[in-house]
Amino acid sequence: MAEIKLLVRVPMDCWRQWIRHRTANVNEYSTRYSLAIDAMQTTTPDLWREQATQNRQGSAGFLSPDQGEQLSASEGRFPTPGT
């Protein structure tokens, strides 16, 4: 069986109509107990952290400022078809 995953950002009214007529399994980020994610929000370069080697759910400190700058600059950009 084929499977496809899409990241979709649409206004809430469009989303509700799409879900109403769906034939797929959909996970939605709930904002009942958490803040909504702003699509224009970016991470400051000094807050990027390294992945821990022993604990997959933990971090092992902060990335260098140069790496943080690169990640912050690329954050929020979506790949375009053909690139």
Provide tags for this entry.
23% helix; two-stranded antiparallel sheet; 83 residues; 2 strands; alpha+beta; elongated
Can you walk through the features of this model?
This protein is of the alpha+beta class and 83 residues long. Helix content is 23%, strand content 8%. It is built from two helices and two strands. The chain has a two-stranded antiparallel sheet with strand order 1-2. The longest helix is centred in the C-terminal third of the chain and has 10 residues. The two termini are 28 Å apart. The model has no long low-confidence stretch (mean pLDDT 79).
Number of helices: 2
Assign the structural class, choosing from mainly alpha, mainly beta, alpha/beta, alpha+beta, or little secondary structure.
alpha+beta
Shape: elongated
Q: Beta-sheet strand percentage?
A: 5-15%
State the strand order across the main sheet.
1-2
The count of strands amounts to 2
Condensed summary:
The protein is an alpha+beta fold and 83 residues long.
